[in-house]
Amino acid sequence: MTRSPVGWDVDSPVQAEVFVVWLDGDRIQLTGPDGPQSWILQLGPSEHPVEVVDRIVRDVVGPPILVHSTSWRRDRDAVILSFVVVIGPELVDGMASVPIDRAELARSQPTVAPADIAVGSVVEHGLRHLAWLVQDDPVVAAELPSGWRPVLAGYIPEPFRSLGQEAHR
Amino acid sequence: MNDQTVTNRCACGWEISGTEDDVVDATIDHGRRIHNMGATRAQVLASLRGNGDGEGDARSAAEAEAG
Predict the structure, then answer these.
(1) Are A113 and A74 in contact, with CB atoms under 8 Å apart?
(2) B chain contacts of residue A41, beta-carbon cutoff 8 Å
(3) What's the whole-model pTM score?
(4) Is A8 inside any structural domain?
């Protein structure tokens, strides 16, 4: 006799959504322990989100290069903190990956959050955030392997690209 | 001892089938390692039995855990 599955899921009021990304030549790939999909972590009331994401990624995938929170939204009856986690290609080791395509951002009203936010928009926002950080944050600039900079340049709005390049001359 | 095969599926796509004890242990381990969850046996059993065929559902998770 077999009983059918009911499903098992994270249900804490605050959750982390981890996007594990790596650079494959000049393409950014999305991966994770269950493939290229949202990787949801439970966050307890006394836990620091960054510490949890770093620890779980380190245990399951390996040591990350960067762990950065890039946005939040309400979904799944919770507040979801989105993280972009950059890993080196040597850690992918058979995890399924897909190239990340560009996506439209979910735009807010002046005082109202977007009604619906697709995962692709969250990833796009995360990579635009990373593109800004690599120009503005010396830690990110130092830690991110050099191959990322030209790829992330495509995520910077065009009027600002030259400003960033000036800053790093 | 419950010999029936049970299956549990995580929202992430991970799935486990086996005896109830095996499925509970694997679910707790998966939740802890992959999702930072601190689920108890009682919580997993309650989840498994929430969609069961009725057999054994009358037992509470706490009773089941106590054996």
Answers:
(1) yes
(2) 35-36
(3) 0.81
(4) no
Question: How many structural domains are present in chain A?
Answer: 1
Q: Which among A7, A47, A59 has the least Cβ separation from residue B11?
A: A7
In this prediction, residue A34 carries a pLDDT of 86
Check if B54 contacts A (Cβ < 8 Å): no
Q: Which domain holds residue A59?
A: 14-167
CA dist., res. A29 & res. B55, Å (int): 46
Q: Is residue A9, in this structure, part of any structural domain at all?
A: no
Pairing label, strands A2-3, B5-9: parallel
CATH number of residue A141's parent domain: 3.90.79
The pLDDT, as a whole number, for residue A94 is: 87
pLDDT digits (tens, 9 = 90+) for A12-48: 999 999 999 999 999 999 999 988 888 999 999 999 9
